[in-house]
Specification:
mainly alpha; 5% strand; globular; 535 residues; two-stranded antiparallel ribbon; membrane
Length: 535
């Protein structure tokens, strides 16, 4: 391929802004959640880790060639992204899907409560009777909250309406960075990469058609033509548009960190910032962080250099700071494992054959769906990329093989009620798969038949995107409102009035954990709630 080299300052600007985007919520968390002395220490760690990056930029960038950025394709990218977001429900624009009840409640909690957010639970005393007093226990919010923090600060200053506008702009800005990375990694900056980014999806339309035929019109689980991505029941690999509509915090974090890691692992002179970059994602999404880790592990163990030389390549002050940041986030999340006033509700987990999302399927039926899922969600794309004979260098080929490996292994394990591990940890690998597919489409030596099959596959995948857009347009039309300010809601009554322990315990930890005993500011609950029994 003959490409002009991307203007180096443009690439450095993309890298710098991307790090700053992931960096800002971490700063807010340390400033508002930690005791002042601990916060100062970790601010020092953050600045120490980012010093060489922010104040000595561009020393290790060796990115591949790419067409120069052009104004019209970039403007087209912004218009397409803006159109999708105006349908998505973000900030109240368009129509909100089911997950937005949680997003709105999380943002509202961060606005209304003092940080660290905590609730006061009124509980019966041990062996209580009606005449005995009630005990009060404090439970802190423990969740990946980075996405909401900048908008929550705006909400504390100016109110709920402006918090939603800030969330819209924050998400739009992150989406621009994501598409910028997609264009850079695919080595193209024209109109087509932006379109491919938006329409990339598994072949869900074929999947739901096949299983409705096999299961005589019935589909396992929740698959239907209003939202077809759950066609396999036990698994879902989301399209880019689905991530924007349902879980933008997961998608944006995954797309940006994938771009940063690819730049470091494949095109940079050293790996001295890899762990620092990875640590910035811990408060955004632990699932995305897990999905990104195989690329670092693969680079570490796959290379033919001696282990001593490879380890020396990672030894640096930014990476050490990254390890410390990962540790503090790990201690924060470990608060969930300590005793809590509410009864612990185990997380659904295990091998998919023994702990399925959809019960009642035989082993044979589950295996059939698994094979079909893998083939339609990524297998056909991977085969087409392989047959295009892209001129990968050794590290790029490694990225491709790791991506296929991750997407193959994830469906065998379940974690979370909806199998969140497979849905979210797959995002970096799916992003890279779309990148390589775009490269294959542009590669001049790709046979016409392969190029035609890529286009046909993308068009079939785009049916899912059309279904998502149609659902949102239909809801907007039915309501007669394009903008509806969301109801704030509360985490403990999303499903129904009162505290459902089976739902609420997903979002809380223990005040007795080391994080809240030794590192965090004192808990000051601003809301009293009374739990009810789980039905």
């Amino acid at each position: 391929m003959s490409f002009q080299r991307m203007n180096r300052p443009h690439l450095q600007l993309l890298v710098t802004i991307s790090v700053a985007y992931l960096f800002l919520p971490n700063c807010l968390f340390f400033a508002m959640y930690l005791r002042w002395d601990v916060a100062i220490l970790f601010f020092f760690i953050l600045l120490l880790g980012g010093k060489r990056f922010f104040f000595m930029p561009g020393q290790s960038l060796r990115f591949p060639p790419i067409h120069d950025v052009r104004k019209k394709p970039f403007l087209f990218m912004l218009i397409v992204l803006c159109f999708l977001m105006l349908l998505s429900g973000i900030g109240g624009y368009g129509s909100q899907d089911g997950d937005w009840q949680k997003h709105n409640a999380m943002l509202s909690a961060l606005i209304r409560h003092q940080w660290p957010v905590a609730y006061s639970l009124t509980l019966p005393s041990a062996q209580s009777s009606l005449q005995q007093p009630l005990s009060v226990a404090n439970v802190p919010l423990v969740y990946y909250i980075a996405y909401y923090l900048p908008a929550a600060v705006i909400g504390k200053l100016f109110g709920w309406f402006w918090a939603n506008q800030a969330l819209f702009l924050w998400t739009f800005f992150g989406g621009c960075l994501a598409i910028g990375w997609f264009q850079a990694l695919s080595q193209q900056a024209g109109y087509l990469p932006a379109v491919i980014f938006c329409v990339f999806s598994g072949l869900d339309a074929i999947g739901i058609s096949v299983i409705r035929f096999v299961f005589l019109g019935e589909s396992p689980g929740m698959a239907h033509w209003i939202h077809i991505e759950r066609w396999a029941g036990n698994w879902e690999y989301p399209s880019h548009i689905t991530s924007i509509f349902w879980a933008p915090h997961q998608g944006i974090c995954a797309w940006i960190i994938t771009g940063l890691l690819v730049n470091e692992l494949v095109y940079a002179e050293s790996k001295r910032r890899v762990l620092f970059f990875l640590s910035l994602t811990a408060l955004w999404s632990p699932f995305v962080m897990l999905g990104a880790m195989p690329y670092i592990i693969g680079e570490l163990f796959w290379d033919t250099d001696s282990m001593r030389k490879k380890m020396a390549d990672y030894v640096s002050m930014p990476n050490l700071c990254g390890v410390l940041l990962l540790a503090i986030c790990g201690i924060f999340y470990l608060s969930k494992s300590y005793p809590s006033p509410l009864p612990f509700v185990p997380v659904e987990q295990g091998l998919i054959f023994s702990s399925p999302v959809v019960p009642g399927l035989s082993v044979g039926e589950t295996l059939f769906l698994l094979v079909l899922f893998c083939m339609l969600e990524y297998g056909i794309y991977a085969l087409l990329i392989h047959q295009s004979h892209l001129p990968f260098n050794a590290r790029e080929r490694r990225l491709f093989l790791i991506s296929v490996g991750v997407l193959t292994l994830l469906p065998f394990f379940r974690y979370g009620f909806w199998n969140d591990l497979a849905m979210r940890a797959s995002l970096p690998a799916l992003f890279l798969l779309a990148v390589f597919l775009t490269r294959a489409l542009y590669y001049s030596a790709t046979r016409k038949s392969i190029r035609l099959l890529i286009v046909v596959s993308l068009l079939i995948g785009a049916i899912n995107v059309a279904v998502e857009i149609k659902r949102h347009l239909a809801d907007i039309s039915a309501s007669g409102q394009w903008y509806r300010l969301p109801s704030p809601g509360a985490l403990y009554d999303i499903r129904q009035a009162g505290v459902s322990t089976s739902f609420f315990t997903q979002y809380i930890g223990s005040a007795e954990s080391p994080f809240f005993q030794f590192l965090a500011k004192p808990l000051v609950p601003s809301e009293e709630i009374l739990p009810r029994e789980t039905k």
